[in-house]
Amino acid sequence: MQFRCRQFAAQDKRIGLVPTMGFLHDGHLSLVKIARRYSDIVIASIFVNPAQFAPHEDFDRYPRDEKGDLAKLKRAGANIVFIPKVQEIYPPDFQTSVAVEKITGVLEGESRPGHFKGVTTIVAKLFNIIRPDLAVFGMKDFQQATVLKKMVADLDYPIKVIIAPTVREKDGLAMSSRNKYFNPNQRKEAVCLYHALVFAKKMVKNNKISDPKLLKNRMIRIIKDICPAAEIDYIAFTDPVTLTPMKQIKPGCICSLAVRLYKVRLIDNMKLL
Ligand code: AMP
Q1: In terms of Cα–Cα distance, which of 243, 29, 43, 232 is closest to 134?
Q2: Cα–Cα dist 118/55, whole Å
Q3: Is the CB–ligand 1 distance for residue 146 below 6 Å?
Q4: Percent of the chain with pLDDT over 70
Q5: Does ligand 1 lie within 6 Å of residue 132's CB atom?
Q6: Of the candidates 57, 35, 61, 32, which has an alpha carbon nearest to the alpha carbon of residue 46?
Q7: Per-residue confidence at 116, pLDDT binned at 50, 70, 90?
Q8: What residues form DSSP beta bridges with 43?
Q9: Most CB contacts within 10 A, which of 136, 224, 231, 232?
């Protein structure tokens, strides 16, 4: 992979990278299409990264479909698919990591200790192997995108980071590989995250509520009405870069939430103002 990428670079070809964990849907493919617009060679990677899963999380049962993924990536216009083995990425004596500090201690980082260290380490490795000119990440994982932008800035990677909008199902549920865990009835209830976010955005836009605490309480009610079994991990209103909580909803505010539905943990977010 390194050899091929150095050849492309020697030919002055712009390389765009789209890192994924596979089991691809239209959200992932939208990233490939964006990468295609800004690069000569699009490389998608598929790697279910054990380092970003805690022991009790779903690494072993994370859905995989390599054959289907390859066909989808071909159709979307990827030129190369990089599918390294776990032992290649993490040989037995592997002992180095890359970690972004402060902004990984909140939201997802608070609920999933060690998660972002796993993410930044694998993405740093992919960056070093491929040396892309640009990399595309999804807004769906808003904190991840913010953390990776910070890593790129702090470590002086000469890589342009593009954040792609969230692709949703017809009813508004953000596309996610984990949606396949639901049965049809559960799947219908999973739309509760989206409804709560749309409600919050509408309230803020119409100047009806600007107090995050009030908004949060109303959102909890909406979620529980649609899915009584929902367990809310967090609902937060933060600055998009520093991820500090906002006391009043101000321009730039991102509302993000994590909810556990029938043992499946979903995340979503929306820019409120
Ligand atoms: P994953 O395979 O879940 O690690 O995701 C790989 C990339 O696809 C990440 O940059 C995600 O943010 C992005 N992604 C996942 N779901 C969506 C979606 N529904 N819309 C846009 N991008 C997404």
Answers
A1: 43
A2: 13
A3: no
A4: 100
A5: no
A6: 32
A7: very high
A8: 17, 80
A9: 136
State both tokens at 140: 């769906």
Token reading at 101: 């500090």
Regarding the beta carbon of 21 and ligand 1, being less than 6 Å apart is answered yes
Nearest CA among 48, 112, 42 for reference residue 77: 42
At 13, list the tokens: 């070809």
Which residue, 34, 29, 107, is CA-closest to 69? Answer: 29
Q: 3-class DSSP state for residue 169?
A: coil
Please list, in sequence order, all residues whose beta carbon lies within 8 angstroms of the beta carbon of residue 239, skipping any fewer than 6 positions away: 246, 252, 253, 254
164 Cα to the center of ligand 1, angstroms: 9
Residue to probe by mutation, ligand 1, list 140, 146, 179, most atoms within 8 Å of CB: 140
Cα radius of gyration rounded to whole Å, the chain: 19
CA 218 to centroid of ligand 1, rounded, Å: 28
Tell me which residue has tokens 């906002």. 246
- pTM higher than the cut 0.85: yes
Could you give the angle at the alpha carbon of 138 between the alpha carbons of 45 and 217, nearest 5°? 140
The closest alpha carbon to 86, from 132, 120, 122, 55, belongs to 122
d(CA 9, CA 230): 49
Q: Residue of the nearest CA to atom 12 in ligand 1?
A: 138
What is the pLDDT, as a whole number, of residue 35?
98
In this structure, the residue with its CA closest to atom 14 of ligand 1 is: 138
28 is catalytic: yes
